[in-house]
Design brief:
By secondary structure, the chain is α/β, with parallel strands linked by helices. It has 2 domains: about 110 residues, 3-Layer(aba) Sandwich (Rossmann fold); about 180 residues, Rossmann fold (3-Layer(aba) Sandwich), CATH 3.40.50.720. It is about 35% helix and about 15% strand. It is built from 12 helices and 12 strands. A 7-stranded parallel β-sheet has the order 8-7-6-9-10-11-12. A 5-stranded parallel β-sheet has the order 2-1-3-4-5. Strand 6, helix 8 and strand 7 form a beta-alpha-beta unit. Helix 1 packs parallel to helix 12 and helix 5 packs across helix 8. The two termini are about 20 Å apart. Bound molecules: NADP nicotinamide-adenine-dinucleotide phosphate. The site of NADP nicotinamide-adenine-dinucleotide phosphate has 30 residues, from helix 8.
Length: about 325
């Protein structure tokens, strides 16, 4: 397999790079600032693309690689891969489901607690010497027992629900259809209904044309001034300008955000707000999980080139 050309779109994981280097002829796209020159020279030899949640395989890249057979994504979300084009061209696509579910669900719960209990602000309070200077920290808001509404009760949404249940939180959800497996969770047929009936609204669905800006002004208003938004999905799920103005104007109680519309750009107005907790897209960012994701990417590539069934096929 050493002669098979594999194109990695951007830096994502050192272990993955090392393991790909051992098995394939690995091209690091970011080492070639002259993309067109690189493609002219090497496109015919590249049979696989490894992308991630930042840079996947768009139509231009797919069209520029005539020998492309498989896109193996170092992510579960495939919003950066042109799936219809891959289907058309019979290019296989794989992702990394399941292995990252627990980490992302853990982070969602962490963001809920950090936002309601103002953990980041309390940390700054102690470090800044304000405890000594000003005395006790202000009172915050309880997490246990708060009603949690989840948009997208898939692998991660369900894992968040299970965790929140352990905190006695009543769970409700919205997705395109009710789930037979979740009888104790209340289904709402619209996001506005869900937002009107919960205190913490979590985004855990896939990013598609339908779910872009699924959290808009109407949803934020329905959630209300005490409500909290948690986003561990993708930045474009939220109309960020609307979110920022609702937070600045006090029309929304708080937000815990792992993802943003223009990463790594984050609206600077959010930096001033103590009721907001910000994370740099680290939902799956533990050593254990990133290694498991890397192993899955490699396993899928090996299976493909050995004519074996793919481990986690999408297309
Ligand atoms: P999954 O099991 O496929 O679940 C996705 C859910 O989205 C499904 O339950 C689906 O429900 C729902 N959905 C799809 N279209 C919808 C629509 N139009 N309206 C409402 N719900 C819709 O995927 P997963 O493994 O849980 O991952 C979910 C997402 O989390 C990924 O796509 C990714 O964007 C994000 N993620 C983020 C991080 C991070 O680092 N922050 C890490 C991993 C994943 P229905 O089919 O019933 O509608």
């Amino acid at each position: 397999m050493e002669s098979i050309g594999v194109l990695m779109t951007c830096p994502m994981n050192t272990y993955l790079e090392q393991e790909l280097d051992k098995r394939f002829k690995l091209f690091r796209f970011w080492h070639f600032p002259q993309e067109q020159t690189f493609l002219k020279e090497h496109s015919a030899t590249i049979r696989a693309v490894v992308g991630n949640a930042s840079i996947g395989a768009n139509a231009n890249l797919i069209d520029a690689l005539p020998s492309l057979e498989i896109v193996s994504s170092f992510s579960v979300g495939l919003d950066k891969v042109d799936l219809p084009k891959c289907k058309d061209k019979r290019i296989r696509v794989t992702n990394t489901p399941d292995v990252l579910t627990e980490d992302v669900a853990d982070l969602a719960i962490g963001l809920m607690i950090a936002t309601l209990r103002r953990l980041c602000e309390s940390d700054r309070y102690v470090r800044g010497g304000l405890w000594k200077k000003k005395g006790d920290f202000k009172l915050t808001s309880k997490f246990s027992g708060k009603s949690v509404g989840i948009i997208g009760l898939g692998r991660i949404g369900l894992a968040i629900a299970k965790r929140a249940e352990a905190f006695d939180c009543p769970i409700s959800y919205y997705s395109r259809s009710p789930k037979a497996t979740s009888k104790s969770y209340k289904y709402y047929p619209t996001v506005v209904d869900l937002a009107s009936n919960c205190e913490i609204l979590v985004v855990a669905c896939a990013l598609t044309e339908e779910t872009r800006h699924i959290i808009n002004r109407e949803v934020i208003d329905a959630l209300g001034a005490e409500g909290v938004v948690i986003n561990i999905g993708r930045g474009p799920h939220i109309d960020e300008a609307e979110l920022v103005s609702a937070l600045v104007e006090g029309r929304l109680g708080g937000a815990g955000l792992d993802v943003f519309e223009n990463e790594p750009g984050v609206p600077e107005q959010l930096f001033e707000l103590e009721n907001v907790v910000l994370a740099p897209h680290v939902g799956s960012g533990t050593n254990e999980t990133r290694k498991a994701m890397a192993d899955l990417v490699i396993g899928n590539l090996e299976a493909h080139f050995l004519n074996k069934p793919l481990l986690t096929p999408v297309v």
